[in-house]
Design a protein that fits this description.
The complex is a heterodimer of chains A (about 325) and B (about 200). Chain A is mainly α and about 325 residues long. Chain A has helices at about 1-25, 40-45, 70-105, 120-150, 155, 160-190, 200-205, 225-250, 255-285, 300-310, 310-320, and strands at about 50, 55, 65, 115-120, 300. In chain B, the strands form 3 sheets. In chain B, strands 1-6 form a two-stranded antiparallel sheet. Classes of the chains: A mainly alpha (about 325), B alpha+beta (about 200).
């Protein structure tokens, strides 16, 4: 259908051109001078116009003869996306370093209590770490596609870089699938805890207590900051998954313009999500005392939980008081 | 040094596809891959023209600027070649190419792209000239034998011209002046930023 429309446009453009140039053509020596010229055809097609025709081989894509606009994407890819990706990563690392120097590691004000509360069960941790480990490899192999040529290639040489990138591509294509499965898992497991509510407003107003010592706004299982991470991962991950699948099966999308569009969205989303995840990794490891245990052993210290997720602790305690978890005799 | 180019005189092309066949045969190009193709514009309408198209070996080639692994290089004769050992088959060059030149055998996971293949201007790749390994990866190296690309050499109507840009432009210009019309050097504006003016 699109093909037919395109041909119609070409035909109309041609008719127009012939109409305009007919007197001149007639004046020339040879009557076959009524030919389409490349210049007139491009004028008729307007900006962004591609010259398309009929082709006798089965590959319909090959019917596109000249697409000058592809050069525009090429310039953007080689320049703009490259710069954005580098700054997204370096910018976030610089910002976190500055934060660490100013604020330092966020300690548990009350110290370790020694009592543990189960925060994430085995299924939740499995989903998280599948998502995390695949994301890291996907992000690194993806980043290599954008900036490896300027950063890594001069360092390790063409042979090693070629081999590494080839393995990176294979890893990227295969690990995309467990990433998508884990993404669905975390949505199913956590979406109920991540619906924004009034508590989040108060948490945001107090800056999550990140900036000042001793400030601990109340929060349920996930505070507003974690909800932002959650929705960034879910929406960003969905966008990456969709555009990625489209790029993985190039014959499913019809045109060069589609590929260029999906690639651009994929790269921009990846740059943004990588920056967000770097911040997430920081606060979950060196940035905050006791935070890693939540995803490490799954059990957090009670004092940490009271400071960062006070409402959740109350919920859990209430629950354990009435039913479920067996307690030793007191 | 010459600046090698292709020029298809569309007013002479009869869409016999012999250039396509010759290319496939010369380089033993596998099924599903066409380094050269013939596209017919305004098929069946007044002003129908056929254009034989392959890699145009662009000035400031967009494929080279987007390649994540920097596998493209330009020879002293301005032919754009690539290294299949470095290529990872990501497909970016095919998104960037205005002429649909890059081709991919479906050999990677999920039946997606393998290493890219395209017109080499019959001049092989980075391997030693006329070596067996070069032939297997890129096809024959006619340029090293002192010959021009086969597609142009055997074109029955001499529509497809290959050689130094200035020389083939002059041949085309003479033709246009003599016969009184010409549909233009297809793709030149896009590939080289300039066209043949008559």
């Amino acid at each position: 259908m699109a093909h037919q429309i395109h041909r119609l446009v070409v035909a109309l453009g041609l008719a127009l051109t012939l109409g305009l140039f007919a007197p001149q053509a007639m004046a020339q020596v040879n009557p076959t001078a009524e030919s389409v010229t490349e210049e007139a055809l491009f004028d008729a097609l307007g900006s962004g116009g591609n010259v398309t025709g009929r082709i006798s081989i089965p590959d319909a894509h090959a019917g596109q003869l000249i697409a000058p606009e592809n050069r525009v994407w090429a310039a953007m890819q080689g320049d703009t996306l490259h710069t954005i990706s580098i700054w997204a990563v370096i910018g976030m690392i610089a910002l976190l370093t500055l934060f660490y120097l100013v604020r330092g590691k966020i300690r548990i004000d009350g110290g370790m209590s020694g009592r543990k509360i189960l925060r994430f069960n085995a299924i939740e941790r499995f989903a998280h770490w599948t998502l995390a480990s695949t994301f890291i490899i996907l992000a690194l192999s993806g980043l290599n596609i954008i900036i490896g040529r300027t950063v890594l290639l001069p360092m390790i040489g063409e042979g090693a870089f070629g081999t590494l990138s080839a393995w990176g591509k294979i890893a990227h294509n295969f690990l995309a699938w467990p990433f998508m499965v884990a993404l669905v898992m975390i949505v199913v497991l956590w979406v109920i805890h991540n619906i924004p509510n009034k508590v989040d407003l108060e948490w945001m107003k107090q800056g999550g207590g990140l900036l000042k010592k001793g400030v601990h706004p109340p929060a349920k299982k996930f505070n507003a900051g974690q909800k932002i991470i959650f929705w960034s991962v879910v929406l960003g991950g969905a966008a990456l998954s969709f555009t990625g699948v489209m790029l993985l099966f190039p014959n499913e999308v019809a045109t060069f313009a589609d590929w260029q569009f999906y690639q651009t969205i994929h790269a921009l989303t990846a740059a943004a999500l990588s920056a967000i995840i770097i911040a997430h990794i920081y606060i979950g490891s060196v940035g905050m005392e006791g935070a890693f245990d939540a995803m490490g052993s799954g059990e957090v210290d009670e004092n940490w939980a009271k400071e960062h997720h006070s409402l959740w602790v109350e919920e859990v305690k209430g629950e354990t008081g009435s039913k479920a978890r067996p307690h030793p005799a007191e | 040094m010459a600046r090698l180019k292709f020029l298809c005189d569309a007013d002479r092309c009869i869409e016999c596809n012999a250039c396509v066949t010759a290319c496939k045969n010369e380089h033993e190009v596998p099924w599903g891959i066409n380094r050269r193709r013939v596209v017919t514009i305004n098929d069946g309408l007044p002003g129908e023209r056929s254009v034989s198209m392959a890699c145009m070996h662009c000035t400031d080639a967009p494929c080279a600027s987007v390649c994540p692994v920097d596998c493209f290089y330009t020879t002293d004769d301005a032919v754009v070649l690539h290294n299949k050992d470095t290529c990872i088959g990501c497909g970016y060059c095919s998104y960037a190419c205005p002429f649909g030149a890059p081709q991919y055998p479906q050999t990677a996971n999920f039946g997606t792209r393998g290493k890219m293949d395209k017109c080499t201007y019959c001049s092989g790749g980075p391997e030693p000239d006329m070596s067996e390994v070069e032939y297997i990866k890129y096809g024959s190296n006619r340029l090293a034998e002192g010959k021009l690309p086969l597609c142009a050499e055997m074109c029955s109507t001499k529509s497809l011209l290959a050689g130094d840009g200035d020389i083939i432009a002059e041949i085309y210009r003479e033709r246009v002046v003599t016969r009184g019309y010409g549909s233009g050097a297809w793709g030149w504006r896009t590939a080289y930023g300039e066209t043949v003016t008559v």
